[in-house]
Write a structure and sequence with these properties.
It contains no helices and four strands. With 48 residues, it is an all-beta fold. A hairpin with a 5-residue loop joins strand 3 and strand 4. The protein is elongated.
């Protein structure tokens, strides 16, 4: 699970963890016309 507070993946179990991930950025556009950048972690692969 990703923690917004620590901005890191938090491993709460041992059965499934990310093997490959990358940080991505998107621009969010609000209804009032303003926009903001948002960073998140995209998991490309995980072990099962």
């Amino acid at each position: 699970m990703y923690s917004f507070e620590t901005q890191q993946m938090q491993h709460t179990c041992t059965c499934c963890q990310e093997l490959k991930s990358q940080k991505r950025e998107v621009t969010l556009t609000c209804r009032n016309g303003t926009s903001m950048n948002y960073d998140y972690v995209y998991v490309e692969s995980a072990n099962a």
